Predict the structure.
Amino acid sequence: MFSGIVETAAKVVAIKKNGGNIDITLECPFANELRIDQSVAHNGVCLTVVDLPGNGTYTVTAIKETLDRSNLGMLKPGDLVNLERSMLMNGRLDGHIVQGHVDQTAVCSAIEDADGSRYYTFRYDVNPEMAGKGYVTVEKGSVTVNGVSLTVCNSRRDSFQVAIIPYTFENTNFKNIEVGSVVNIEFDIIGKYLSRLMEFSK
């Protein structure tokens, strides 16, 4: 489980295709603290550490289903990836409950200056059946974008906005997001459970 509070933006140093999967090697400040089999969220996707090559790097594997649902298949060497290690059970939940199971991708459709902060608008494909199961955003609710826990504003049927403060902009890969960029989104798990319970109560 994660909280959506990104620790660092790591640099991709190598990508190797392995059948339908890809092995991603990244460089990050806490690589020497990692161990094999540890879970780390990458742009919001929970992946397992499979190798520790050294020199401040580690390797994870993304399977085909993950590549189909996320933007990880678009990564190339030099790209920045938002990282978060799994949450300690005695820690503070500073963001919201994040599973690291990305639901789908969204596309940045607008970026607006807000006198120091920035408003990003994201559009996503809506599946009516999945929307009925809670795969939607709600005003002032939580959403995870590239692994970052954010509060939704201007929620629409197929889009939403988030406000990014300067600290988040500088310390995540939001600084590289442009109009047309593809991001990973995970809808709030609480909304999914409530929708499911309502479905069974009918």
